[in-house]
Design goal:
about 450 residues, Rossmann fold, ten-stranded antiparallel sheet, five-stranded parallel sheet, 14 helices, 19 strands
Length: about 450
């Protein structure tokens, strides 16, 4: 389709790639760039992420809009005064009370006394409901101007945004439109009506990349944990409080503009990666009487009561290779439970010693998960109202034992199965002895 545009007489072929957050737009753009290179075409990639105006502009601009009806004509000067105060501050503290106190004298000359107090209060409130996935976060007018300049074979200054400090940073790089026959533009708002209106009359191949809710959620959490300074709990709260709403209200409608629609669920390579890798020596328990003898002959270390929710989505494939598990733990013998962790388990693989290794991503641990969900009900509400399903619920008892100086754990899953997990360095004779009791 791009070559057809060139054959029609347009000097450059414009490729627009839009889609859900974490759907694989950047990967798709890079892959297309490689393919075009193989076929002898020169292409450049313009990421709309680089047109993010930064937190020193996003929050003040929202205050100007929602508290002053966009009447503050000196808002750019206010933003410039705020930027050096917050840009090197940890993400969670950007607009903390401590920073607000520093911002106050820096912007006092731009506002009247009654305006100043209202503006500062607005900063705190807008920060509490920050949403990076709104169109106003990006300077789409600036982006459309750069795209048109490239198509006219002009040179533009390459924009650069840092996800570490959440601000625009200086760049000495330039892109010369004369050097490329294909201009690839990727970003969640690459098919936004404002951008398309400003590119009216220019032929383009319009693409939209989507994915199932589980893939999009996992990619967003894993990506932000590695590439931004935002905590996993912050991203999780943001995801359900605003990111999904923005997707439905301002991103998904642009799918109707697309010439091509692609679904991009978790790839096999993604399912093979994690921040923790676990091996298991697990054996099914068939002899309940033998299991009870083993327990009575061992020293009880602890007994843990857990409830696991396995999260899926409609028509999901590879569910066993793509486990998203919300866990609750009981501290009163299984009477009541509270959130304990959110974990993703990827595709298992066999080692040469015949042991199974499974990649694990600990998305939220026992401390951080309570910042997101205080109880089971709030977790279920967020997931079930955003396209997820609960595949199954397991109530588990873990009994940790010391048997003849051997650490072992007996897992009992209510109405389903029992199995025993043994330490890696167990001797063959000890293994045979224990298995003779429970097999």
């Amino acid at each position: 389709m791009g070559e057809e545009i060139l054959e029609s007489g347009q000097k450059k072929a414009l490729i627009l790639i839009s889609g859900a957050s974490s759907s694989g737009k950047s990967y798709g753009a890079s892959y297309l760039h490689e393919m075009l290179t193989k076929f002898g075409h020169r292409s450049c990639i313009i990421s709309l992420d680089q047109y993010n105006v930064g937190l020193s502009h996003i929050i003040p601009n929202k205050v100007n809009l929602n508290y002053f009806n966009s009447s503050l004509l000196n808002i750019n000067e206010i933003c410039k005064a705020i930027k050096p105060i917050i840009e090197n501050v940890p993400f969670s503290s950007k607009y903390s009370q401590e920073q607000i106190e520093k911002i106050k004298p820096a912007i006092s000359s731009f506002l009247k006394n009654d305006q100043l107090d209202l503006f500062l209060e607005g900063l705190k409130k807008e920060w509490a409901k920050l949403n990076f996935d709104e169109p106003s976060v990006y300077d789409l007018l600036e982006a459309s101007k750069d795209i048109k300049d490239l198509l006219k074979e002009k040179t533009i200054a390459e924009k650069q945004y840092s996800k570490v400090i959440s601000e625009r940073v200086a760049s000495n790089s330039f892109i010369n439109g004369k050097d490329y026959s294909f201009i690839i533009v990727e970003g969640i708002y690459a098919l936004n009506s404002l951008l398309l209106t400003n590119l009216k009359g220019i032929k383009a191949v319009k693409n939209f990349i989507d994915g199932n809710p589980k893939s999009l959620f996992l990619r967003r959490l894993i990506r932000d944990a590695s590439k931004t300074s935002a905590s996993a709990s912050f991203t999780s709260k943001l995801y359900f409080s605003s990111i999904m709403d923005s997707y439905r209200q301002t991103i998904l409608p642009s799918r109707n503009q697309a010439d091509l629609i692609l679904d991009n669920d978790m790839s096999f390579s993604e399912l093979r990666s994690g921040n923790l890798y676990k091996t298991k020596n697990a054996y099914t328990i068939k002899n309940i009487e033998g299991m009870n003898r083993l327990i009575s002959s061992s020293k009880l270390i602890e007994r843990i009561y857990e409830k696991d929710f396995y999260v899926a989505c409609e028509n999901e494939k590879q569910e066993e290779n793509n486990i998203l598990r919300f866990r609750e733990r009981s501290f009163d013998g299984g009477k009541t439970y509270r959130p304990s962790s959110l974990v993703h388990k990827g595709a298992p693989k066999w080692r040469k010693d015949n042991k199974i290794v499974r990649p694990v991503n600990v998305l939220l641990d026992e401390e951080s998960i309570l910042d997101v969900w205080k109880d089971e009900g709030s977790f279920l509400y967020d997931f079930l109202t955003n396209g997820f399903e609960i595949n199954r619920i397991e109530i588990k008892t873990k009994t940790r034992l010391l048997y003849k100086n051997i650490n072992l754990t007996i897992f009992e899953i209510k109405d389903r199965m029992r199995y025993i997990e043994l330490q890696d360095d167990i001797s063959n004779s000890a293994l045979k002895e224990i298995l003779s009791l429970v097999s």
